[in-house]
Amino acid sequence: MKVFLSKHWLTITGIPLGVLGGYIYYINWGCVNGCPIKSNANTMMLYGAVMGGLLLNIIEGEILRRKNRSK
């Protein structure tokens, strides 16, 4: 478990950051009706968690590729 956490710490950090970002987006710009994703806080936070995890996973992969090239 420690190996997994140390290897994917950036992706794991992106999930709560995405939840927070999704909630802030819902509070400031969310729709009241008519928007299937933006009208529900839980859906927006789940979407933010997925996007935050994916974004930081891409960044984490790029960091690892650059680290392996320099060896």
Structure explained in plain terms:
The structure is a single chain. Helices cover 79% and strands 0% of the residues. It has 71 residues and is an all-alpha fold. The chain is elongated.
How is this fold's topology laid out?
Elements: H1 2-7, H2 9-29, H3 41-69
Helix pairs in contact: 2-3
Structural key phrases:
71 residues; mainly alpha; 3 helices; 79% helix; elongated
Poorly predicted ranges: none
Query: Quaternary status of these chains?
Result: single chain
Which whole number gives the mean pLDDT? 90
Helix content: over 70%
How many strands, which pairing sense, and closed or not: the largest β-sheet? none
Reading the helices and strands in chain order gives HHH
Strand content: under 5%
What shape does the CA trace take? elongated
Radius of gyration, in angstroms, nearest whole number = 15 Å
Q: Count up the helices.
A: 3
- Through-space gap between termini: 26 Å
Structural class: mainly alpha
Number of strands: 0
Would you kindly provide a brief summary of this structure?
The protein contains three helices and no strands. It is an all-alpha fold.
